[in-house]
Amino acid sequence: MNNKSLKNGNNKIDAKNAVIKIANVDKWFRLHHNYSLKDAFVNLFTHKKRDKSLFHALSNINFNINSGEAIGLVGINGSGKSTLLKCISGVIKPDKGKVSIKGRIAGLIEVGAGFHPDLTGRENIFLNGAILGMTKEQIIQKFDDIVEFSEIPQFIDSEVRFYSSGMFLRLAFAVAIHSDPDIFLIDEILAVGDAKFREKCLNRISELSKQGKTMVIVSHAEQQIRQLCQRAVWINKGKVQMDGPANEVLDAMNKFTGLKK
Known about the structure:
By secondary structure, the protein is α/β, with parallel strands linked by helices. It is built from 8 helices and 9 strands.
């Protein structure tokens, strides 16, 4: 792809008004290779060390996100999208550079993350709500709405260890959207659950976006990105390949990867 077609998000967003600032972010992961029992036996007696290598997951990522933006992080599997989202959420720390956040975050990054398997759905609403920054009074006030949205009232006093992945999604999403954060981080979570509930979640995300909430969404569902996001950042091999209007970025990515629109 011609470099002239690339767009830099920093030129579009006033850094003073940005609620998310990603500056010179790099992330490496150490890869441990698998060895056979024979290899382990030989290494034991030869004192040969296992080969370890570093994988450069993110390389010099720079862009800002303004308040109220709905932005999609797109790219093929292994490109670094989810790693970047986890850096934004604080789940992992960059090895270089800095991510600055202004406002409260609700992260829907892993289904059931923050849920304790030995606690009931009711108890986990209070636990997860507290993790997301809600007070006990706020949780009590919104409890009925959370349960109603989740559509699993008959299981609310069951231990979540018995929940299906779809039930996890329902409760996790219900708690997150009622925590009233400034920023939503969503990673492929809408790929779980039945179509009717996914549509309900998409409609709610769209409503919250119209209310001025900031959204950062990772999804392989291209139509979801086109529907929900005004802007997209294409991550390719750990680098920002293109940053611009969602439709333009997706069209360019499809052309680059040989996919039709």
